[in-house]
Specification:
Number of strands: 0
Shape: elongated
Strand content: under 5%
Helix content: 40-55%
Distance between the termini: 38 Å
Amino acid sequence: MGRKKHIVNLSDEERSKLEAVISTGEHRAEDITRARILLKADEGLTDPTICEHLGCSISTPYRTRKAYSERGLAALHRRKPDRDYEPKLDGRGEAHLVALACSDPPAGRSRWTYQLLADRLVTLEEISSRSPERLFDSG
């Protein structure tokens, strides 16, 4: 078996921060899992052993170690901070979307779908595209 490509060597400060993430209960479950993975990787445990301890998939420790080697402790959070997100709607359009989604759906429908909302916003000239993926996607 080959050597690990992305080795985790935590400083005392990083270890303290990760232990705080685990113990406070104020973080998302996936962030806590990533923190536990980094702590166990720092202790020298292998990926299969980490998976056994934490009940995660075999690729999760590898991806977490890789992200840590690239971004440090920022790797706890899934999204990269340098990604640029351009809002699809302004405040007025967002207000229309919320009001529309909270209203009764069109006749013959039991609920609003992304496509119905997108079509209605096009009709109201809030957006120019009918693709619901483009409207509700954040990237």
